[in-house]
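Quick review question:
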C-alpha cells in the first residue's frame, strides 16, 4: 500500500489527468480493482488506469439508480463487488463507480474520492481549445 504522502507527488494542471491520479490513488489505497467517474449520461469523465472497460463501467453509473433500466444480463448489476456513489458538483450530477475490494473499504474510498474529485474540479479549469478557422487563402 502506498504511503499517504506519496500521492502528493503526482499532480497535474490538466483536469482529466488530475482526476485519474485521484481515482488511481483511491482505488489502490482501498484495494479496489478499478474506479470510474461518469457524468449524468453515463459518459466516461476519468478512470483509474487499472479499470477494465471503463466506458462500460461509466455507462452503468446512472443506470444503477434505476434498476428498471438495466438489462437483465448486465454483468455489473449482477456483481456484488460494485458500488455506485452519486453526487452533485456545480449543478452537475456525477457518479463514482468502484469495483472490487471489501464493501466497507469501497464505501469509504468512494466518499474520499468524491471529496478529491470536487476539490480538483474546483481548482482546475477546463479551457476549451481555440476553434481552428481555415483561412480563405487555404480554401
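Suggested answer, residue by residue:
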Amino acid at each position: 500500500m502506498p504511503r499517504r504522502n506519496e500521492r502528493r507527488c503526482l499532480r497535474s494542471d490538466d483536469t482529466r489527468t488530475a482526476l485519474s491520479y485521484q481515482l488511481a490513488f483511491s482505488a489502490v489505497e482501498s484495494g479496489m480493482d478499478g474506479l470510474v467517474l461518469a457524468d449524468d449520461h453515463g459518459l466516461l469523465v476519468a478512470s483509474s488506469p487499472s479499470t477494465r472497460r471503463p466506458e462500460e463501467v461509466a455507462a452503468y453509473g446512472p443506470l444503477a439508480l434505476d434498476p428498471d433500466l438495466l438489462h437483465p444480463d448486465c454483468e455489473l448489476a449482477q456483481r456484488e463487488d460494485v458500488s455506485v456513489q452519486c453526487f452533485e458538483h456545480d449543478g452537475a450530477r456525477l457518479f463514482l463507480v468502484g469495483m472490487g475490494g471489501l464493501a466497507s473499504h469501497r464505501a469509504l474510498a468512494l466518499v474520499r474520492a468524491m471529496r478529491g474529485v470536487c476539490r480538483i474540479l474546483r481548482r482546475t479549469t477546463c479551457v476549451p481549445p481555440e476553434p481552428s478557422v481555415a483561412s480563405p487563402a487555404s480554401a
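Why it works: The chain has one domain: 4-128. The longest strand covers residues 82-89.
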